Amino acid sequence: MKYNTILFVGSNPSSSSPEEVVFHSSTMSSKRLMTWLKNIQGVFIYINVLNSPTENNRPIKNSEIILNIERLKSDIDGIKPNKIVALGKTAGTALEIIEVEHYKMPHPSGRNRELNDEEYVKEMVKGLENYISRPNLTLGSHEASSLESSDNCV
Fold first, then answer.
1. CB crowding 53-87: b at 16 or more within 10 Å, else e
2. Residue 19 CB partners (closer than 8 Å, separation 6+)
3. What pLDDT, on the 0 to 100 scale, is given for residue 80?
4. DSSP symbols for 35-76
5. Single pTM value for the model
6. What is the pLDDT of residues 87-103, one digit of tens each?
7. Torsion from C-alpha of 22, 131, 90, 95, nearest 10 degrees
8. In the chain, N or C: fewer CB atoms in 10 Å?
9. What is the pLDDT of residue 39?
10. Residue 128 DSSP SS3
């Protein structure tokens, strides 16, 4: 059985991570993300728009996104994922700039209050599962078809 390569794009590493890594399993965000992915099979790869934490975990500025676009495009081209998932608004903005098809998920941060709504979370995870089960994307294609259960695919 061949698995999809699923690329998850976040904004930047948390300043609470024990070291500067793309994804660290000890953070609340990573633990929440793993619960979302429990029924999804694939090879999961994680990258960030910005490769270092920001002071006090402040949001990334648009100018910082722009400065990192070429590296992000290069990373995606090198990985050649079957599916791309944006984790949060910053990642979604960056992926829209480079016009790559992706599925938008909310950032899994413990500070994200919309994730207190269990029905919302179930719908987002269901949409992700539907996106993953669709035929694979073609890199360079920014035309996206809509999902039956969600409009988060762009």
1. bbeeeeebeeebbeebeeebbebbeeeebbbbbbb
2. none
3. 95
4. HHTTT--SEEEEEESSSSPPGGGPPPPHHHHHHTHHHHHHHH
5. 0.80
6. 999 999 999 999 999 99
7. 90
8. N
9. 87
10. helix
